[in-house]
């Protein structure tokens, strides 16, 4: 054993170089997979480092390079199953590029959102992936020149990744029209978010053209329905529902079952998001799929590109959505 293995002292880069019989520069190149180092030498240095239990000093590296190889992910509500799925994909994509991710949940609070961003910035993250709680740029005074990638919302200062919500809303409404429904209710998410409004408005526009809009109501992104929404869902005024989020749609199914109504025999439902729970429901929830894996990967790649090239032109990428047929759409019940 080496002296460092017996002493309990954390091995340094110099210790690795000495044990491997190479210069400190060569050891550094080998461990960081950079520079001109032969394959046999690189493997030898890595084996020695593993035997010594060498771990890079990330704080020292950050002081030397000005980079921490860490990014922050700010999400509005981890109780909504869409966001843990998004976080998982961001973490996996970042790991592929040797980046760590600090994930924080703002619980829908502007104050918590600002506090989370400030804490992440103080910890020296190289950039932020931010899914804001609404369309306001609440972090404008905090981020300065820090690279920021914004998901879903509009923001004139940062790179954006969004989805084609208009197309998704139209798909849902047109599918219910094709199934024969002519009394269709629309439930949207919060009205202070443009993308939420667009999902439901694009559905409502299609339904108005077919004289098929029964009503249009709003609900929080929650399994629990507002009293007015729960009453409308179950009062027979609509034979089908276009719902702006799967979580709300699952809440509607639960409300209908409590009132003795069947899905899709008595009322059809289409959600939006394609959260994992939707596929596990019975019947499985028909929905509009958001490509969350691709969004997570592209969010990381776009942010890392911005970190590497901060003066590049601002980018906006819009992902297509698709309709997923499961078991909650059927023709309307006979009169």
Compact summary:
It contains 14 helices and twelve strands. The protein is an alpha/beta fold and 335 residues long.
Note down, in words, how this protein is organized.
- This protein has 335 residues and is α/β, with parallel strands linked by helices.
- The chain has 3 domains: 13-56, lambda repressor-like DNA-binding domains (434 Repressor (Amino-terminal Domain), Orthogonal Bundle); 68-163 and 292-320, Rossmann fold; 165-290, Rossmann fold.
- Helix content is 44%, strand content 16%.
- The protein has 14 helices and 12 strands.
- The protein has helices at 3-7, 13-20, 24-32, 39-52, 58-65, 82-96, 110-122, 140-143, 165-178, 194-209, 227-234, 246-258, 276-280, 292-308; strands at residues 70-75, 100-105, 127-130, 148-151, 159-163, 184-188, 213-218, 240-243, 268-270, 287-289, 316-319, 322-324.
- The strands form 3 sheets. It has a 6-stranded parallel β-sheet with strand order 2-1-3-4-5-11, with helices on both faces.
- Strand 8 (240-243), helix 12 (246-258) and strand 9 form a beta-alpha-beta unit.
- It is elongated, with a radius of gyration of 26 Å.
- The protein starts with a helix and ends in an 11-residue tail after the last strand.
- Pfam families: LacI, Peripla_BP_3.
């Amino acid at each position: 054993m080496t002296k460092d293995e017996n002493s309990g002292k954390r091995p340094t880069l110099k210790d690795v170089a000495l044990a491997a019989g190479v210069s400190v520069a060569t050891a550094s190149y080998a461990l960081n997979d950079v520079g001109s180092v032969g394959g046999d030498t690189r493997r030898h240095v890595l084996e020695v480092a593993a035997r010594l239990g060498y771990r890079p000093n990330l704080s020292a590296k950050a002081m030397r390079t000005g980079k921490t190889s860490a990014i922050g992910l700010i999400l509005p509500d981890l109780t909504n199953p869409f966001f843990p799925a998004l976080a998982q994909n961001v973490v996996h994509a970042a790991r592929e590029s040797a980046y760590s991710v600090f994930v924080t949940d703002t619980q829908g609070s502007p104050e918590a959102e600002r506090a989370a961003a400030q804490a992440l910035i103080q910890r020296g993250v190289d950039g932020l992936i931010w899914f804001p709680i609404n369309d306001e740029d609440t972090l404008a005074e905090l981020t300065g020149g820090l690279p920021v990638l914004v998901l879903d919302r509009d923001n004139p200062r940062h790179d954006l990744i969004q989805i084609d919500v208009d197309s998704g809303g139209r798909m849902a409404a047109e599918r219910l029209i094709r199934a024969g429904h002519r009394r269709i209710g629309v439930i949207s998410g919060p009205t202070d978010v443009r993308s939420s409004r667009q999902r439901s408005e694009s559905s409502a526009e299609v339904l108005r053209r077919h004289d098929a809009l029964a009503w249009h109501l709003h609900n929080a992104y929650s399994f629990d329905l507002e009293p007015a929404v729960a009453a409308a869902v179950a009062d027979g005024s609509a034979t089908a529902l276009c719902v702006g989020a799967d979580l709300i749609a699952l809440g509607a199914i639960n409300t209908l079952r409590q009132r003795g109504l069947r899905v899709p025999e008595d009322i059809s439902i289409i959600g939006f998001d394609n959260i994992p729970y939707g596929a596990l429901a019975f019947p499985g929830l028909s929905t509009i799929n958001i490509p969350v894996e691709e969004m997570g990967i592209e969010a990381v790649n776009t942010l890392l590109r911005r970190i590497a090239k901060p003066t590049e032109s601002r980018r906006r990428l819009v992902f297509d959505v698709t309709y997923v047929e499961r078991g909650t759409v059927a023709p309307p019940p006979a009169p």
